[in-house]
Amino acid sequence: MGSDQVTSHGAQPIKSTVPLTEETEARLSDVGEAEILVGIPSYNNVDTIGHVVRAVSAGLAKYFPGRRAVLVNSDGGSSDGTSEAVSQAIVDYGALLISDQQSPLQKIITPYHGIPGKGSAFRTIFEIARRVNAKACAVVDSDLRSITPEWIELLLRPILEEGYDYVAPYYLRHKYDGTITNSIVYPLTRTLYGQRIRQPIGGDFGFSGQLTEHYLDQHVWESDVARFGIDIWMTTEAVASGARVCQSFLGAKIHNPKDPSSDLSAMLMQVLGAVFALMESHHGVWSGVQGSNAVKLYGFQYEVGVEPINVNVDRMIALFRQGLADLAPIWEQALGKETVAKLSPLSSASISDFRISDDLWVRVVYEAALAYHQRRMPREHLIKSLTPLYLGRTATFVLETQGLTTMEAEKRIEQLCGVFESSKPYLVERWTPEPR
Question: What CATH number corresponds to the domain at position 84?
Fold first, then answer.
Protein backbone atom coordinates (compact mmCIF):
# COMPACT_ATOMS: atom_id res chain seq x y z
CA MET A 1 0.00 0.00 0.00
CA GLY A 2 1.04 3.61 -0.32
CA SER A 3 3.53 4.74 2.29
CA ASP A 4 1.30 7.59 3.45
CA GLN A 5 -1.59 5.31 4.37
CA VAL A 6 -2.87 4.38 7.79
CA THR A 7 -1.39 1.01 8.70
CA SER A 8 -0.67 -0.96 11.83
CA HIS A 9 2.68 0.82 12.08
CA GLY A 10 1.45 4.43 12.36
CA ALA A 11 2.79 6.65 15.13
CA GLN A 12 -0.41 6.60 17.17
CA PRO A 13 -2.68 3.94 15.73
CA ILE A 14 -6.28 3.90 16.88
CA LYS A 15 -7.60 0.39 17.32
CA SER A 16 -11.31 -0.35 17.48
CA THR A 17 -11.90 -3.78 18.98
CA VAL A 18 -14.67 -5.77 17.39
CA PRO A 19 -16.61 -7.72 20.03
CA LEU A 20 -16.27 -11.50 19.78
CA THR A 21 -18.10 -14.18 21.74
CA GLU A 22 -16.43 -16.06 24.59
CA GLU A 23 -16.48 -19.22 22.49
CA THR A 24 -14.73 -17.42 19.62
CA GLU A 25 -12.13 -15.95 21.99
CA ALA A 26 -11.45 -19.47 23.25
CA ARG A 27 -11.08 -20.81 19.72
CA LEU A 28 -8.66 -17.97 18.91
CA SER A 29 -6.52 -19.00 21.87
CA ASP A 30 -6.46 -22.56 20.56
CA VAL A 31 -5.66 -21.51 17.00
CA GLY A 32 -2.90 -19.02 17.81
CA GLU A 33 -1.42 -17.53 14.63
CA ALA A 34 -2.19 -18.45 11.03
CA GLU A 35 -0.59 -17.30 7.81
CA ILE A 36 -3.76 -17.71 5.73
CA LEU A 37 -7.40 -16.97 6.57
CA VAL A 38 -10.44 -17.67 4.41
CA GLY A 39 -13.74 -16.15 5.50
CA ILE A 40 -17.25 -17.22 4.53
CA PRO A 41 -20.13 -14.93 5.57
CA SER A 42 -23.43 -16.79 5.78
CA TYR A 43 -27.12 -16.62 6.57
CA ASN A 44 -29.30 -19.69 6.05
CA ASN A 45 -27.09 -21.26 3.37
CA VAL A 46 -27.25 -24.91 4.44
CA ASP A 47 -27.84 -26.11 0.86
CA THR A 48 -24.61 -24.70 -0.55
CA ILE A 49 -22.12 -23.89 2.22
CA GLY A 50 -20.87 -27.45 2.65
CA HIS A 51 -19.68 -27.44 -0.97
CA VAL A 52 -17.98 -24.06 -0.45
CA VAL A 53 -16.19 -25.27 2.70
CA ARG A 54 -14.99 -28.44 0.95
CA ALA A 55 -13.69 -26.42 -2.03
CA VAL A 56 -11.83 -24.06 0.32
CA SER A 57 -10.39 -26.96 2.31
CA ALA A 58 -9.24 -28.77 -0.83
CA GLY A 59 -7.72 -25.59 -2.25
CA LEU A 60 -5.72 -24.91 0.89
CA ALA A 61 -4.52 -28.54 1.10
CA LYS A 62 -3.55 -28.72 -2.57
CA TYR A 63 -1.93 -25.34 -3.09
CA PHE A 64 -0.72 -24.27 0.36
CA PRO A 65 0.00 -27.54 2.18
CA GLY A 66 2.84 -26.18 4.30
CA ARG A 67 1.08 -23.06 5.54
CA ARG A 68 -1.03 -22.75 8.65
CA ALA A 69 -4.55 -21.75 7.68
CA VAL A 70 -7.87 -21.03 9.36
CA LEU A 71 -11.40 -20.96 7.93
CA VAL A 72 -13.83 -18.50 9.52
CA ASN A 73 -17.59 -18.80 9.08
CA SER A 74 -19.16 -15.49 10.18
CA ASP A 75 -22.86 -16.22 10.49
CA GLY A 76 -25.84 -13.88 10.78
CA GLY A 77 -27.98 -16.12 12.99
CA SER A 78 -28.87 -18.97 10.63
CA SER A 79 -31.67 -21.26 11.79
CA ASP A 80 -31.36 -23.92 9.08
CA GLY A 81 -28.25 -25.80 10.18
CA THR A 82 -25.69 -23.72 8.28
CA SER A 83 -23.16 -23.79 11.14
CA GLU A 84 -23.51 -27.56 11.51
CA ALA A 85 -22.91 -27.97 7.77
CA VAL A 86 -19.67 -25.97 8.09
CA SER A 87 -18.53 -28.04 11.05
CA GLN A 88 -19.30 -31.39 9.41
CA ALA A 89 -17.93 -30.65 5.91
CA ILE A 90 -15.11 -33.13 5.25
CA VAL A 91 -12.89 -33.57 2.19
CA ASP A 92 -11.67 -36.92 0.89
CA TYR A 93 -8.17 -35.74 -0.04
CA GLY A 94 -7.22 -39.10 -1.51
CA ALA A 95 -10.03 -38.91 -4.05
CA LEU A 96 -8.66 -35.52 -5.14
CA LEU A 97 -5.09 -36.87 -5.40
CA ILE A 98 -4.02 -34.61 -2.56
CA SER A 99 -1.78 -35.99 0.20
CA ASP A 100 -3.28 -35.74 3.67
CA GLN A 101 -2.54 -32.48 5.42
CA GLN A 102 -0.03 -32.47 8.23
CA SER A 103 -2.70 -30.98 10.47
CA PRO A 104 -6.46 -30.52 9.91
CA LEU A 105 -7.76 -27.15 8.78
CA GLN A 106 -8.64 -24.98 11.74
CA LYS A 107 -12.26 -23.75 11.69
CA ILE A 108 -13.82 -20.89 13.62
CA ILE A 109 -17.62 -20.70 13.46
CA THR A 110 -18.90 -17.50 15.01
CA PRO A 111 -21.89 -15.17 15.00
CA TYR A 112 -21.20 -11.57 14.07
CA HIS A 113 -22.26 -8.46 15.94
CA GLY A 114 -23.46 -5.10 14.64
CA ILE A 115 -26.18 -4.08 12.24
CA PRO A 116 -27.43 -6.96 10.05
CA GLY A 117 -25.62 -7.30 6.76
CA LYS A 118 -22.67 -8.73 4.90
CA GLY A 119 -20.41 -5.88 6.00
CA SER A 120 -20.82 -6.72 9.67
CA ALA A 121 -19.97 -10.33 8.85
CA PHE A 122 -16.83 -9.12 7.06
CA ARG A 123 -15.85 -6.96 10.00
CA THR A 124 -15.77 -10.00 12.27
CA ILE A 125 -13.69 -11.87 9.67
CA PHE A 126 -11.28 -8.90 9.45
CA GLU A 127 -10.93 -8.76 13.24
CA ILE A 128 -10.14 -12.47 13.47
CA ALA A 129 -7.62 -12.05 10.63
CA ARG A 130 -5.94 -9.29 12.63
CA ARG A 131 -5.94 -11.41 15.79
CA VAL A 132 -4.29 -14.42 14.11
CA ASN A 133 -1.86 -12.12 12.27
CA ALA A 134 -2.83 -13.49 8.85
CA LYS A 135 -0.62 -12.43 5.96
CA ALA A 136 -3.12 -13.30 3.21
CA CYS A 137 -6.91 -13.49 3.41
CA ALA A 138 -9.79 -14.29 1.13
CA VAL A 139 -13.57 -14.10 1.44
CA VAL A 140 -15.95 -16.15 -0.69
CA ASP A 141 -19.74 -16.19 -0.86
CA SER A 142 -21.58 -18.99 0.91
CA ASP A 143 -24.03 -19.69 -1.92
CA LEU A 144 -21.51 -20.45 -4.69
CA ARG A 145 -22.19 -23.47 -6.85
CA SER A 146 -19.23 -22.93 -9.17
CA ILE A 147 -16.35 -22.51 -6.68
CA THR A 148 -13.41 -24.86 -7.21
CA PRO A 149 -10.21 -25.42 -5.20
CA GLU A 150 -8.36 -23.37 -7.83
CA TRP A 151 -10.24 -20.25 -6.71
CA ILE A 152 -8.38 -20.36 -3.41
CA GLU A 153 -5.00 -20.44 -5.12
CA LEU A 154 -5.97 -17.61 -7.47
CA LEU A 155 -7.24 -15.37 -4.66
CA LEU A 156 -4.30 -15.97 -2.29
CA ARG A 157 -1.13 -16.60 -4.29
CA PRO A 158 -0.84 -13.07 -5.77
CA ILE A 159 -0.77 -11.77 -2.19
CA LEU A 160 1.56 -14.37 -0.72
CA GLU A 161 4.05 -14.51 -3.59
CA GLU A 162 3.60 -11.45 -5.82
CA GLY A 163 3.24 -8.67 -3.26
CA TYR A 164 -0.32 -7.60 -4.09
CA ASP A 165 -2.65 -6.18 -1.47
CA TYR A 166 -5.97 -6.84 -3.20
CA VAL A 167 -7.21 -9.46 -5.66
CA ALA A 168 -10.52 -8.76 -7.38
CA PRO A 169 -12.43 -11.58 -9.08
CA TYR A 170 -12.80 -11.76 -12.84
CA TYR A 171 -15.75 -13.90 -13.90
CA LEU A 172 -17.11 -14.81 -17.31
CA ARG A 173 -20.75 -13.80 -17.24
CA HIS A 174 -23.63 -13.77 -19.68
CA LYS A 175 -23.71 -10.47 -21.55
CA TYR A 176 -27.01 -9.57 -19.81
CA ASP A 177 -25.87 -10.59 -16.31
CA GLY A 178 -24.47 -7.89 -14.06
CA THR A 179 -25.96 -4.99 -15.98
CA ILE A 180 -25.59 -2.55 -13.07
CA THR A 181 -21.87 -3.33 -13.09
CA ASN A 182 -21.63 -3.09 -16.88
CA SER A 183 -23.50 0.18 -17.36
CA ILE A 184 -22.61 2.10 -14.18
CA VAL A 185 -20.27 0.62 -11.60
CA TYR A 186 -17.41 -0.62 -13.79
CA PRO A 187 -17.25 2.42 -16.11
CA LEU A 188 -17.64 4.88 -13.25
CA THR A 189 -15.13 3.36 -10.80
CA ARG A 190 -12.64 2.84 -13.63
CA THR A 191 -12.98 6.48 -14.66
CA LEU A 192 -12.83 7.85 -11.12
CA TYR A 193 -9.85 5.89 -9.81
CA GLY A 194 -7.99 4.97 -12.99
CA GLN A 195 -7.89 1.18 -12.50
CA ARG A 196 -9.74 -1.18 -14.85
CA ILE A 197 -11.13 -3.62 -12.29
CA ARG A 198 -13.82 -5.39 -14.29
CA GLN A 199 -15.86 -6.82 -11.40
CA PRO A 200 -15.59 -4.28 -8.56
CA ILE A 201 -18.63 -5.77 -6.77
CA GLY A 202 -17.91 -9.42 -7.48
CA GLY A 203 -18.28 -10.80 -3.94
CA ASP A 204 -15.13 -12.98 -3.74
CA PHE A 205 -11.82 -11.25 -2.95
CA GLY A 206 -8.29 -11.74 -1.72
CA PHE A 207 -6.51 -9.15 0.46
CA SER A 208 -3.39 -8.71 2.55
CA GLY A 209 -3.16 -8.49 6.31
CA GLN A 210 -2.00 -4.90 5.95
CA LEU A 211 -5.11 -3.98 3.97
CA THR A 212 -7.22 -5.72 6.63
CA GLU A 213 -5.82 -3.27 9.18
CA HIS A 214 -6.80 -0.36 6.95
CA TYR A 215 -10.34 -1.69 6.53
CA LEU A 216 -10.85 -2.13 10.27
CA ASP A 217 -9.67 1.39 11.01
CA GLN A 218 -12.29 3.05 8.78
CA HIS A 219 -15.38 4.55 10.40
CA VAL A 220 -18.07 2.92 8.28
CA TRP A 221 -19.20 -0.01 10.35
CA GLU A 222 -22.41 1.57 11.65
CA SER A 223 -23.37 2.96 8.23
CA ASP A 224 -25.24 1.63 5.20
CA VAL A 225 -21.88 0.46 3.85
CA ALA A 226 -21.84 -2.25 6.50
CA ARG A 227 -25.40 -3.17 5.64
CA PHE A 228 -25.30 -3.12 1.84
CA GLY A 229 -22.25 -1.76 0.07
CA ILE A 230 -19.31 -3.72 1.44
CA ASP A 231 -18.11 -5.19 -1.90
CA ILE A 232 -17.73 -1.90 -3.76
CA TRP A 233 -16.37 -0.31 -0.58
CA MET A 234 -13.58 -2.91 -0.31
CA THR A 235 -12.55 -2.41 -3.93
CA THR A 236 -12.71 1.38 -3.80
CA GLU A 237 -10.85 1.64 -0.48
CA ALA A 238 -8.11 -0.61 -1.82
CA VAL A 239 -7.58 1.49 -4.95
CA ALA A 240 -7.99 4.86 -3.22
CA SER A 241 -5.53 3.92 -0.46
CA GLY A 242 -2.77 3.14 -2.94
CA ALA A 243 -2.90 -0.65 -2.53
CA ARG A 244 -1.41 -2.87 -5.25
CA VAL A 245 -4.39 -4.43 -6.99
CA CYS A 246 -4.77 -7.28 -9.48
CA GLN A 247 -7.49 -9.60 -10.77
CA SER A 248 -7.81 -13.38 -10.98
CA PHE A 249 -9.80 -15.28 -13.58
CA LEU A 250 -12.27 -17.55 -11.77
CA GLY A 251 -14.37 -18.80 -14.68
CA ALA A 252 -18.12 -18.67 -14.27
CA LYS A 253 -19.87 -17.52 -11.15
CA ILE A 254 -22.98 -19.66 -10.98
CA HIS A 255 -25.82 -18.18 -9.02
CA ASN A 256 -29.52 -17.65 -9.54
CA PRO A 257 -29.72 -15.05 -12.33
CA LYS A 258 -32.54 -12.56 -12.46
CA ASP A 259 -34.14 -10.62 -15.26
CA PRO A 260 -32.40 -7.21 -15.13
CA SER A 261 -35.80 -5.52 -14.81
CA SER A 262 -36.78 -7.35 -11.61
CA ASP A 263 -36.26 -6.10 -8.04
CA LEU A 264 -33.99 -3.26 -9.07
CA SER A 265 -34.82 -0.26 -6.90
CA ALA A 266 -33.34 -1.85 -3.79
CA MET A 267 -30.20 -2.99 -5.60
CA LEU A 268 -29.64 0.42 -7.16
CA MET A 269 -30.15 2.05 -3.76
CA GLN A 270 -27.50 -0.17 -2.21
CA VAL A 271 -24.89 -0.03 -4.94
CA LEU A 272 -25.25 3.56 -6.16
CA GLY A 273 -25.65 4.86 -2.62
CA ALA A 274 -22.28 3.33 -1.74
CA VAL A 275 -20.57 4.48 -4.98
CA PHE A 276 -21.78 8.07 -4.57
CA ALA A 277 -20.88 8.16 -0.86
CA LEU A 278 -17.38 6.92 -1.68
CA MET A 279 -17.04 9.67 -4.29
CA GLU A 280 -17.50 12.16 -1.47
CA SER A 281 -14.94 10.45 0.75
CA HIS A 282 -12.29 10.19 -1.95
CA HIS A 283 -12.78 13.35 -4.00
CA GLY A 284 -9.19 14.30 -3.29
CA VAL A 285 -8.05 11.10 -4.99
CA TRP A 286 -10.29 10.81 -8.05
CA SER A 287 -10.43 14.48 -9.04
CA GLY A 288 -6.80 14.34 -10.14
CA VAL A 289 -6.92 11.01 -11.99
CA GLN A 290 -6.80 11.07 -15.79
CA GLY A 291 -7.40 8.06 -18.00
CA SER A 292 -7.17 4.48 -16.74
CA ASN A 293 -4.69 1.64 -16.56
CA ALA A 294 -5.05 -2.05 -17.27
CA VAL A 295 -4.94 -4.23 -14.16
CA LYS A 296 -2.90 -7.46 -14.14
CA LEU A 297 -5.08 -10.54 -14.66
CA TYR A 298 -3.91 -13.90 -13.28
CA GLY A 299 -5.22 -17.34 -14.17
CA PHE A 300 -5.78 -19.42 -17.29
CA GLN A 301 -8.61 -17.90 -19.31
CA TYR A 302 -10.94 -20.41 -20.90
CA GLU A 303 -14.38 -20.43 -22.45
CA VAL A 304 -17.16 -21.10 -19.98
CA GLY A 305 -20.75 -22.05 -20.64
CA VAL A 306 -22.81 -19.41 -18.84
CA GLU A 307 -26.43 -19.68 -17.85
CA PRO A 308 -28.81 -17.96 -20.27
CA ILE A 309 -30.67 -14.89 -19.09
CA ASN A 310 -34.01 -13.92 -20.53
CA VAL A 311 -34.68 -10.21 -20.82
CA ASN A 312 -37.96 -8.48 -21.54
CA VAL A 313 -37.04 -5.42 -23.60
CA ASP A 314 -40.65 -4.33 -24.11
CA ARG A 315 -41.24 -4.26 -20.36
CA MET A 316 -38.05 -2.31 -19.68
CA ILE A 317 -38.96 0.32 -22.28
CA ALA A 318 -42.52 0.53 -20.93
CA LEU A 319 -41.19 1.15 -17.41
CA PHE A 320 -38.80 3.80 -18.74
CA ARG A 321 -41.65 5.58 -20.52
CA GLN A 322 -43.83 5.40 -17.41
CA GLY A 323 -40.97 7.03 -15.52
CA LEU A 324 -40.65 9.72 -18.16
CA ALA A 325 -44.37 10.48 -17.77
CA ASP A 326 -44.46 10.38 -13.97
CA LEU A 327 -41.01 11.56 -12.89
CA ALA A 328 -40.09 14.28 -15.39
CA PRO A 329 -40.26 17.10 -12.77
CA ILE A 330 -38.04 15.09 -10.40
CA TRP A 331 -35.60 14.25 -13.19
CA GLU A 332 -35.44 17.92 -14.19
CA GLN A 333 -34.57 18.86 -10.62
CA ALA A 334 -31.95 16.11 -10.35
CA LEU A 335 -30.48 15.97 -13.84
CA GLY A 336 -31.35 19.34 -15.36
CA LYS A 337 -33.96 20.31 -17.94
CA GLU A 338 -31.51 20.00 -20.84
CA THR A 339 -30.81 16.34 -20.04
CA VAL A 340 -34.49 15.47 -19.67
CA ALA A 341 -35.27 17.26 -22.95
CA LYS A 342 -32.87 14.88 -24.71
CA LEU A 343 -34.69 11.91 -23.17
CA SER A 344 -38.19 13.11 -24.09
CA PRO A 345 -38.23 11.93 -27.75
CA LEU A 346 -37.86 8.35 -26.48
CA SER A 347 -41.44 8.47 -25.24
CA SER A 348 -42.66 7.85 -28.79
CA ALA A 349 -39.70 6.19 -30.53
CA SER A 350 -40.30 2.76 -32.04
CA ILE A 351 -38.74 -0.19 -30.26
CA SER A 352 -36.19 -0.64 -33.03
CA ASP A 353 -35.19 3.04 -32.83
CA PHE A 354 -35.13 3.24 -29.01
CA ARG A 355 -31.64 4.28 -27.86
CA ILE A 356 -30.15 6.14 -24.90
CA SER A 357 -26.79 7.04 -26.43
CA ASP A 358 -23.49 6.65 -24.58
CA ASP A 359 -23.08 10.43 -24.34
CA LEU A 360 -26.55 10.92 -22.89
CA TRP A 361 -26.18 8.02 -20.45
CA VAL A 362 -22.86 9.35 -19.13
CA ARG A 363 -24.49 12.76 -18.65
CA VAL A 364 -27.33 11.10 -16.69
CA VAL A 365 -24.89 9.28 -14.37
CA TYR A 366 -22.69 12.33 -13.81
CA GLU A 367 -25.66 14.60 -13.14
CA ALA A 368 -27.03 12.03 -10.68
CA ALA A 369 -23.69 11.96 -8.84
CA LEU A 370 -23.64 15.77 -8.72
CA ALA A 371 -27.27 15.87 -7.52
CA TYR A 372 -26.39 13.40 -4.74
CA HIS A 373 -23.36 15.46 -3.70
CA GLN A 374 -25.18 18.79 -3.84
CA ARG A 375 -28.29 17.37 -2.13
CA ARG A 376 -30.64 18.70 -4.80
CA MET A 377 -33.31 16.42 -3.29
CA PRO A 378 -33.48 13.66 -0.64
CA ARG A 379 -30.84 11.16 -1.64
CA GLU A 380 -33.09 8.13 -1.35
CA HIS A 381 -35.67 9.74 -3.66
CA LEU A 382 -32.92 10.62 -6.13
CA ILE A 383 -31.53 7.11 -6.45
CA LYS A 384 -34.95 5.46 -6.58
CA SER A 385 -35.94 7.78 -9.42
CA LEU A 386 -33.03 6.45 -11.49
CA THR A 387 -34.48 2.94 -11.86
CA PRO A 388 -36.52 3.68 -15.03
CA LEU A 389 -33.50 5.43 -16.56
CA TYR A 390 -31.31 2.43 -15.83
CA LEU A 391 -33.91 0.16 -17.43
CA GLY A 392 -33.96 2.36 -20.52
CA ARG A 393 -30.19 2.14 -20.82
CA THR A 394 -30.28 -1.64 -20.28
CA ALA A 395 -32.90 -1.96 -23.03
CA THR A 396 -30.58 0.04 -25.28
CA PHE A 397 -27.69 -2.33 -24.57
CA VAL A 398 -29.84 -5.38 -25.29
CA LEU A 399 -31.11 -3.93 -28.58
CA GLU A 400 -27.54 -3.06 -29.64
CA THR A 401 -26.05 -6.45 -28.76
CA GLN A 402 -28.77 -9.00 -29.53
CA GLY A 403 -26.78 -10.60 -32.33
CA LEU A 404 -23.38 -10.33 -30.65
CA THR A 405 -21.35 -12.83 -28.66
CA THR A 406 -20.46 -12.03 -25.07
CA MET A 407 -16.94 -11.02 -26.16
CA GLU A 408 -18.34 -8.73 -28.87
CA ALA A 409 -20.76 -7.19 -26.36
CA GLU A 410 -17.78 -6.54 -24.10
CA LYS A 411 -16.37 -4.21 -26.76
CA ARG A 412 -19.53 -2.09 -26.44
CA ILE A 413 -18.92 -1.78 -22.72
CA GLU A 414 -15.35 -0.68 -23.39
CA GLN A 415 -16.66 1.99 -25.77
CA LEU A 416 -18.96 3.25 -23.01
CA CYS A 417 -16.00 3.40 -20.64
CA GLY A 418 -14.17 5.58 -23.15
CA VAL A 419 -17.05 8.07 -23.12
CA PHE A 420 -17.08 8.10 -19.31
CA GLU A 421 -13.36 8.88 -19.30
CA SER A 422 -13.44 11.56 -22.00
CA SER A 423 -16.37 13.29 -20.26
CA LYS A 424 -14.81 13.24 -16.79
CA PRO A 425 -13.78 16.94 -16.87
CA TYR A 426 -17.52 17.80 -16.89
CA LEU A 427 -17.88 16.05 -13.53
CA VAL A 428 -14.67 17.42 -12.01
CA GLU A 429 -15.43 21.03 -12.97
CA ARG A 430 -18.94 20.96 -11.47
CA TRP A 431 -18.08 19.16 -8.25
CA THR A 432 -18.38 21.96 -5.70
CA PRO A 433 -17.09 21.82 -2.11
CA GLU A 434 -19.14 19.84 0.39
CA PRO A 435 -22.25 21.86 1.32
CA ARG A 436 -22.38 23.08 4.89
Answer: 3.90.550.10
